[in-house]
Design goal:
The complex is a heterodimer.
Chain A (H helix, E strand, L loop, with lengths): L1 E10 L2 E11 L4 E5 L6 H8 L7 E6 L2 E2 L10 E4 L11 H12 L8 H5 L15 H13 L5 E5 L7 H17 L2 E5 L3 H4 L5 E6 L2 E7 H8 L4 H13 L1
Parallel strand pairs in A: 3-8, 3-9, 6-7, 7-8
Antiparallel strand pairs in A: 1-2, 1-4, 4-5, 9-10
Chain B lengths: L1 H13 L1 H20 L3 H30 L1 H8 L5 H31 L2 H28 L3 H29 L6 H8 L3 H13 L6 H11 L1 H28 L4
Helix pairs in contact in B: 1-5, 2-3, 2-5, 3-5, 3-6, 3-7, 3-9, 5-6, 5-11, 6-7, 6-9, 6-11, 8-10, 9-10, 9-11, 10-11
The chains are: A alpha/beta, B mainly alpha.
Chain lengths: 236, 255
């Protein structure tokens, strides 16, 4: 569904993505992990067309995303740090996105209701706490029932209840057959959600494996332990 | 694009700076016309105020607004919206609001006090100046990510066009007074939109003494009607080129 072919990106002299190739299929739920600054967010932003790689191609549903924007209709994106026009209220932001998308399909208002955003519609984005901003981002990501969900540190800053609500929503989307790409540093949180793991380091994909295979290969019970086990083997 | 434009326009209208700017322009032009006993004198006062303040406010307000719209741009880019649409909507929204402010602030007294032909040319010149300096602001925004640097570049550009340029031309003229440089000076005057606007209005008013050096030669060279056409064309290029250049850079920008 999403194919990344030999993508390279530099920021100045720093090479952030290094001739990276990946394939992601429908129905997969992928954890994208790696140390800070390894290129996870840049990879995500490249898929969204926010960062334009120098080399290589990104193929979405058989078509290259270069010079296209319609493919983004199928993507719900939740950024790591949501940045919104400060003077707009929650209600205005949601209305604006609805207006700009201009889609006639029924909206998915589950998260909107469960996060109780209707009580805060008049609050300005500037005054929101980090967690509430994340709730708005999550609501927007799921609003249009996208085929692909890209979630950058989705649970960072959310309280335990909201985080649980979001997790349930992610699992529901996975069961519906969405392709889900999640980055997180809290591996334990991803444990019961993800089916695949991609481990990145310095702009390269070090590992792309099915979770069960990974656990069997390393003889560990959790993803976190398997990764640690692998890293230790490398250093030895 | 109209959908995006709607949200940009609502946002700018809520901004009190544009309203303050309108009131300031209105105050200046009403007082200029009522203090002077004849309308032609008042017109020249208004002209000088317009040539200084309109570019300054347009370039500064647009620069700050574009930097503050970063979040808005980022939010839209992850949705199925063309990048060029976002940039164009911002440009049209800003231009429209500044042009409206100018039309209300300066336009009404102009139409009341001055004769219609002159008033219309002056309105056109002021509108073009607003749009040109919005385009220049867009260009300086796209060249640097740093807000303070971007605002600095904008102010420097304004300083250059509004004050330094005529001085440089005059300096060159005295340095090369022994050579036939009239054609070169006409060519040079095309390099400042503010100078072009001054020439445009003074060609109409026919006050050569106020025209400045470049204006006098411009008139000599083109005569009145051809001068008008040439200067309008040049002014149109002055907003098209900076804006299209910034648009090209924006399409390739990493957000």
């Amino acid at each position: 569904m999403i194919e990344i072919k030999n993508v390279t990106k530099h920021f100045g002299k720093l090479r952030v993505l290094n001739n990276l190739s990946l394939q992601m299929m429908k129905g997969e739920c992928i954890a994208l992990i790696g140390p800070n600054g390894c290129g996870k967010t840049t990879l995500i932003k490249s898929i969204l067309g926010m960062v334009l790689p120098e080399n290589g191609a990104i193929i979405f549903d058989g078509y290259t995303i270069k010079n296209d924007n319609e493919y983004r209709k199928h993507i719900g994106y939740m950024p790591q740090i949501g940045r919104y026009p400060e003077n707009m209220t929650i209600g205005q932001v949601i209305d604006m996105i609805k207006g700009i998308r201009h889609e006639h399909t029924a909206l998915d208002l589950d998260l909107f209701e469960q996060f109780e955003l209707s009580k805060m519609l008049d609050k300005k984005m500037r005054t929101l706490s980090g967690g509430t901003t994340q709730k708005v981002s999550a609501t927007l990501a799921f609003l249009f029932k996208p085929k692909v969900l890209i979630l950058d540190e989705p649970t960072a800053g959310l309280d335990p209840i909201a985080s649980e609500v979001l997790k349930r929503k992610i699992i529901e989307a996975r069961d519906r057959g969405c392709l889900i790409l999640i980055t997180s540093h809290l591996l334990s949180e991803l444990e019961d959600i993800v089916s695949q793991v991609i481990f990145m380091q310095e702009g390269n994909v070090v590992l792309h494996k099915d979770v069960n295979d990974l656990k069997i290969a390393t003889g560990q019970e959790t993803i976190a332990r398997s990764i640690v086990h692998l890293l230790k083997m490398e250093t030895v | 694009m109209i959908r995006i434009l709607k949200y940009v326009a609502i946002d700018i209208l809520k901004n009190k700076i544009v309203i303050a700017y309108t009131i300031m322009l209105a105050l200046f032009s009403w007082s200029a016309f009522s203090l002077e006993d004849n309308a032609a004198k008042g017109l020249l006062t208004v002209l000088n105020i317009v040539l200084l303040t309109v570019p300054l406010v347009s370039v500064l307000f647009a620069t700050i607004y574009v930097y503050n719209s970063n979040e808005f741009i980022e939010l839209l880019v992850s949705h199925p919206v063309k990048r060029s649409m976002i940039w164009k909507a911002l440009f049209i929204g800003l231009s429209l609001s500044l042009v409206t402010a100018y039309l209300i602030g300066v336009g009404i007294p102009l139409l009341i006090f001055a004769d219609w032909g002159t008033a219309l040319i002056m309105l056109a010149a002021g509108m073009l100046l607003s749009v040109i300096f919005v385009a220049i602001a867009f260009l300086s925004c796209i060249f640097t990510r740093d807000k303070a640097k971007g605002i600095g570049i904008s102010i420097l550009l304004w300083l250059y066009f509004a004050l330094l340029f005529d001085g440089i031309v005059l300096f060159l003229f005295f340095q090369f007074a022994d050579y036939p440089i009239e054609k070169a000076v006409v060519f040079l005057s095309a390099w400042s939109p503010i100078d072009l606007c001054r020439i445009l209005i003074l060609l109409r008013l026919d006050v050569s003494a106020m025209m400045g050096y470049t204006g006098a030669i411009f008139k000599n060279f083109f005569g009145n009607s051809l001068g008008l056409v040439v200067s309008f064309t040049l002014l149109a290029l002055w907003f098209l080129i900076p804006f299209l250049w910034s648009l090209r850079k924006f399409k390739k920008k990493d957000l």
